[in-house]
Amino acid sequence: MRVFKFGGASVKDAEAVKNVASVLQDYGQGPLLVVISAMGKITNKLEELVDAYYFSKDSKKEIFAEIKSFHQQITESLIKDENDYYEVDNLLIELECIIEKRRDESSTYDMEYDKIVPFGELISTKIVSTYLNKFGVKNRWIDARNFVITSSKHRSASVLWEESVPLIQNSLKPLAERQPIITQGFIGRDINHKNTTLGREGSDYSAAIFAFCLDAESVTIWKDVEGIMNADPKQFSEAQLIPKVSYNEAIELAYYGASVIHPKTIQPLKNKAIPLFVKSFVDPLLPGTEVIENDSRTLNDTQCYIIKKNQSLMTIASRDFSFIVEDNLEIIFSKFNAVGIQLNLMQNSAISFMSCFNMNDTKTSALLEELKDKFTVNIKSGYTLLTVFNYNDSNSQLEKIIDDRKIALEQKSSSALQLLLID
Ligand code: ASP
Ligand code: MG
Questions:
Q1: pTM of this prediction?
Q2: Interatomic CA distance for residues 22 and 54, integer angstroms
Q3: How far is the CA of 41 from the centre of ligand 2 (A)?
Q4: If I label 214, which of 10, 333, 338, 387 is the partner at 20 to 30 A Cα–Cα?
């Protein structure tokens, strides 16, 4: 059994869907489960729709119309018979019914999000599955929510392995052995049958979840880049392909923000030693990257440059001038956790704690509210976090990247150098 994953860019229009079909024809032999994301940037649009719906904005109808016509344009280009895509129409009607209804006053923003945003994946998989069935790649569409069982933490649910493994092993595996399966990334369901999602870009993680539960022989993530690169090729003209990388190095790279794979993807694969291939759907003949177990470091002296823009820097000091490492850290960390801010870099001095995280006005205001009684807080935005993984100062391109920007914070560990640059 193998698992393939196709992201939004690989199904962004009708031509792209046809390309997925040709990749499957050429490379999809044998038992296969295919995980697919929402088409193009539709998840962003659906997020706008949630916002408009939740706050009863007039733009709701317009946004829905855009989502509908985007998908209909694609199905019209792929159509053979009038009724081919009736299930896509049904899903669009279902979505429209949800947003027409008055919102349940007791439901939270995140619950509404998980009701609405999964339609991106449900629709895209229906389109791809229908197209494939019409054009010779016989497959079965499966609703991932019946198999990926999660906690009820909406928008960042964690997998309940004890529930999901037997379902996938006993009910899904026999089906997948008979026919290729097309299913959704990113979505699941809690034990009360409420929709959940795994966090943005979570489809890679879904592929790993299925692979783990199916004891798959490999996972292939098909991307619009050659494979895992040592820097974002859109930002660095000299970016190079990394042909082989160990699970541990890949985890670190993803953790520091290399956007090629979702950070949670590797661990389940590593646990069962399932190799991961990252390959180009544009040019499948290229070798791509292989992520495998390897005791020695596979990167050798290749340095990886990872850039995170739109960072905020927060400095927190105790009002009573107590040392920050006394009882204060525990309070500070719990507040960050409560509002859902993840730290990208942190440092402390005797009486202050500095941290950098992705800019987010809503969460930051909530955090300021939580901290204001006990601490003085200073927050500034407009920073870029540069991480050089596998840093070595002899042949680094650091100077060139920093250019003439000032450094606000600097941290070095055995594996990485991190610099917070002022834009
Ligand atoms: N469609 C979701 C997103 O764009 C999940 C994914 O693409 O992995 O975040
Ligand atoms: Mg996506």
A1: 0.90
A2: 40
A3: 6
A4: 10
